[in-house]
Structure formats: C-alpha cells, structure tokens
Amino acid sequence: MTKTILITGATSGFGAAAVKRFAEAGWRVIATGRRAERLQGLVDRFGADKVHAAVFDMRDEAALEASLAALPEAFRSIDVLVNNAGLALGTAPAQKASLQDWRTMIDTNITALVTLTHRLLPDLIERKGVIINMSSVAASYPYPGGNTYGGSKAFVKQFSLGLRSDLHGTGVRVTSIEPGMAETEFTLVRTHGDQAASDKMYGGATPMTAEDIAEQLYYIATLPPHLNINRLEIMPVTQSFAGFQVDRK
Ligand code: NDP
Ligand code: 8X3
C-alpha cells in the first residue's frame, strides 16, 4: 500500500532531497516550506498525485493548522513525519549574538517542531507511524558560536528520546538524526546571506550532501516495524572533534 510522508523544510537541502528520494520510491509526499515556487517545482516534477505542496511558515500555528485541514483526501493518513525544517542564525559568541536570531531559532527549531508533532501524534499512534526529528551534532558537542542553535538541537535530541519513552507500547518509532557538516543552504542562512562565508565553510572539505542525509531518512523510514534507531549521528570523514579551550593568564 502506498505510504504517506510529511517532510517539513522541503524547499531546500535535506528536505528537498528527501522529497525526491521518497517520491521516486513511490511514496506520497507532503512537502512543506515557505517558498511556494520551489514546492511547486517538486509538484510539477513528480505530479500532484505524488507530491502535495503545503505552503506555510512553521511558526504560524493557524497557517499550519489550515494547511493540515486542507490536505487532499489521498494525503490525509500520514505514516511518517520528518521534522526537518530549521535553521541556525549567526556564529557570534553569546555576548554578541542577536536576541532576535535566538528567538527565531527557538520558535522554528523547538516550538514549531513540538506543535506539529503534538498535532499529528494521535494519527501517528493510530497508524503505528514513524517520527524522524532533525537534530545535529551541535546537540552533543558545543562549539564557539553554537550557543542557542546547539541548545535547540539538544532539545530536539532529548525530546525525541522522551517521545520514544512515552510512546512505548504504541508501535510508533522515533529517531533523532544528528548530522554534522552537510552542504545545503544552511550556512548561507546562518551567515544572513554571505555567499563567500558559505563557500569558505564547505570549500575543500568534502562535506556530506543533502542526498546523503535523504538516504539515511529513507533507511530509517523503511526499517522493519520491530526496529528503532534511537539516535543516528553522522559526519563526513573530513570532520571530527577538537579539544577543550584553556584560557591561560
Ligand atoms: P536549508 O537551509 O537548505 O533548508 C532549511 C529548510 O527549513 C528550508 O526548506 C526552509 O524553507 C525551512 N524552514 C526554515 N524556517 C522555516 C519556517 N519558519 N517555516 C517553514 N519552513 C522553514 O538547510 P538544511 O537542509 O541543511 O537544514 C535542514 C535541517 O537540518 C535544519 O533543521 C538544520 O538545522 C539541520 N541540520 C543541518 C546540517 C547541515 O550541516 N546542513 C547539519 C545538521 C542538522 P523556507 O525557507 O522555504 O521556509
Ligand atoms: C549543523 C552542523 O556542525 O554546523 O547542525 O553545527 S554544525
């Protein structure tokens, strides 16, 4: 039977690659994001019977609710929820960071994610569904300038494990996926549109690709129903860990 997946943040990066991966495999995909023309491109490519574009800002609860209420009949039974939409804003140390940037990250990466999850939980329980939450290596390893972004992704990781515990016995599976450096529009967004800084971040580094992560999402979503990946931490070979800092006087 054809399965249905809802992927947030589908206009770019991991989300757009995941829409393609699942649509090519014959799934019905609900693709969400704010940039309508990009979602329409996916509908045009795969057909309206395969991809449904749900255009809304994740932080606008009324718009989110209206979009779900307007789902075509064929897309209403959601088997898999991929909470992927999110962003980092800024690389400055906490004492120089923008409070507005912090609020935007919290509103998007945390508040919107829990709102959509809460809304879909009854259906996911009924269908013994799968929830895949996009965390990050920043959830576990602090780095300078990571402050609120890392904190928001630590929330996503721990929320996922908490969900897993609460959903014990329901058959619902929950995974926190925690990627390291992957080349998407992520750094362009983080640097408020600084293309040179984005190019410098990925240049010569062989980062992961959006398709690499889409493949992991497909793997997690298609595991046999008795298996649950709790956390999946994944990095490019060219990225690893650095040491502690010591402030010597
Ligand atoms: P992109 O910037 O390429 O994609 C981000 C997606 O999130 C876009 O589709 C964007 O859609 C959507 N989004 C952001 N804010 C909102 C909003 N308010 N409402 C609706 N949609 C929104 O980055 P990635 O693909 O890299 O990022 C996807 C996820 O992966 C994020 O949660 C990110 O934190 C995480 N991640 C990324 C890593 C990386 O190195 N790239 C590593 C680890 C985790 P639109 O702007 O059209 O609304
Ligand atoms: C994005 C990966 O290492 O830039 O979540 O924080 S990192």
UniProtKB/TrEMBL annotation:
PANTHER family in alphabetical order: ALCOHOL DEHYDROGENASE (PTHR42901:SF1)
UniProt-recorded Gene Ontology molecular function terms: serine 3-dehydrogenase activity
Organism the protein comes from: Pseudoxanthomonas sacheonensis
Family assignment from sequence similarity: Belongs to the short-chain dehydrogenases/reductases (SDR) family.
Gene3D superfamilies: NAD(P)-binding Rossmann-like Domain
Enzyme Commission number, as recorded: 1.1.1.276
Protein name (database record): Serine 3-dehydrogenase
Domain (Ketoreductase) ranges: 3-184
Keywords, alphabetical: Oxidoreductase
